[in-house]
UniProtKB/TrEMBL annotation:
InterPro entries: DegT/StrS_aminotransferase, PyrdxlP-dep_Trfase, PyrdxlP-dep_Trfase_major, PyrdxlP-dep_Trfase_small. The keyword Metal-binding does not apply. Belongs to the DegT/DnrJ/EryC1 family. The keyword Nucleotide-binding does not apply. It comes from the Bacteria. Coiled coil: none annotated. GO terms for molecular function: pyridoxal phosphate binding; transaminase activity. GO terms for biological process: polysaccharide biosynthetic process. The modification N6-(pyridoxal phosphate)lysine is found at K190. Keywords: Pyridoxal phosphate. The active site is at K190 (proton acceptor). Its cofactor is pyridoxal 5'-phosphate. This is 3-amino-5-hydroxybenzoic acid synthase.
Length: 387
């Protein structure tokens, strides 16, 4: 198309850091104790992160996958149990359950929000179901009202995979105010990061204390006699990681404010491009951190989608193909898979079959760009699709 920009001006870099992160690292260094049992950074980060999300009961861990594993173990997940997960998600959601010996049961998602479909969840509940794990895709909450009712009626637990949902709100309530455990990731691309790291939020202190034992080889904080009280592993976050994350948390609210301003503009522009369908935002998610700017191109072939992504990258837009359906990943079938074939799961996940084949996402740093850059992104995508 004539008149379209050849490239988009550079977006803000990610991760973002500055003197605050440097000061935190020096502070952690100079305290002379670099693990959580002797230092203060992890304890302080837990208090700050928990308060930001509406609960005093936070536990910092090594990464987001371990956050899910710790939460699932506390909830009693293990051999003989099942965990219902969306089939469209990063595979850690299912692997965390499978690593504990449980069966991960993939279910379909909503075609508009890309979050787990409550009706599909309800149909998948059995007497072996222990946990329902909604994923808040790209910061968009799954339907927590419907899922809360399904879980309560079935007598099973909810575990929010909130790896994309730092600072999100559902009908005015923060993630930690929804009454269920929630797990977060601080991996390098996440909305706040120290390269790696994770956290778990709990609705009460008793559950948090049980999780503390799991994450610290079964030992309570005050143990001096190696009285390992339960099973577990070493999932402890270090002091340097926590120091960086404290600075990152201080940046989060302002970054979310910018993304909340940019996404409606970009989504509207994308919707004007023939054949492009942006992710729908449920209005009950009244604060969305927009971990990814996601859209579908229905009918596109895998080869064409890859070419579109490559062309966007070449023209300065950080783009990616969407997650593969977890049941179409070889690793899913190595342990804890349901007694079904790929084709049988695909037949009951028609929306996932579409989304994982035709969805593209843009890095959230694009939404930290200027209003003009939102117009530039849309113009470049229109040009690439017309080419």
């Amino acid at each position: 198309m004539s008149g379209q920009p050849s490239t988009v001006p550079e977006f803000p870099e990610w991760p973002q850091f500055g003197d605050e992160e440097r000061a935190g690292l020096i502070r952690a260094l100079e305290q002379g104790q670099w693990w959580r049992m002797g230092g203060s950074e992890v304890d302080t980060f837990e208090a700050e992160f928990g308060a930001y999300h509406g609960t005093p009961h936070a536990l910092a861990v090594t990464n987001g996958t371990h956050a899910l594993e710790v939460a699932l173990e506390v909830l009693g997940v293990g051999p003989g149990t099942e965990v219902i997960v969306p089939a469209f998600t990063f595979i850690s959601s299912s692997l965390a359950a499978q690593r504990l010996g449980a069966v991960a049961v993939p279910v379909d998602v909503d075609l508009d929000t890309y979050c787990v479909d409550p009706a599909a969840v309800a149909a998948a509940v059995t007497d072996r179901t222990k946990v329902i794990m909604p994923v808040h895709m790209a910061g968009q909450f799954a339907d927590m009202d419907a899922l809360d009712k399904i879980a309560a009626d079935a007598g099973v637990a909810l575990l929010q995979d909130a790896a994309h949902a730092h600072g999100a709100q559902w009908q005015g309530r923060k993630v930690g105010e929804l009454g269920s455990i929630a797990a977060f990731s601080f991996q390098n691309g996440k909305l706040m990061t120290a390269g790696e790291g994770g956290a778990v939020l709990f609705p009460d202190e008793e559950t948090r204390e049980r999780a503390f034992l799991v994450h610290s080889c079964g030992r309570p904080r005050t143990d001096r006699d190696y009285l390992h009280r339960t099973t577990g592993s070493n999932y402890r976050m270090g002091e340097f990681t926590a120091a960086v994350l404290r600075a990152q948390l201080a940046r989060l609210a302002g970054q979310i404010d910018v993304r909340e301003q940019r996404w409606p503009l970009l989504a509207g522009l994308l919707a004007e491009i023939p054949g492009v369908v942006p992710q729908t935002i449920d209005p009950r998610t009244d604060r969305n951190p927009h971990y990814m700017a996601m859209f579908r191109i229905p009918g596109i072939t895998p080869e064409r989608r890859r070419a579109v992504v490559d062309a966007l990258i070449a023209r300065g837009v950080p783009a990616f193909v969407a997650f593969r359906a977890i049941y179409r990943c070889e690793g899913f079938w190595k342990a804890g898979a349901p007694d079904e074939t790929v084709e049988q799961i695909a037949a009951r996940c028609p929306n996932v079959e579409q989304i994982h084949s035709d969805c593209v996402w843009l890095h959230h740093r694009t939404l930290l760009g200027t209003e003009q850059q939102m117009h530039d992104i849309a113009a470049v995508l229109a040009d690439v699709l017309a080419g």
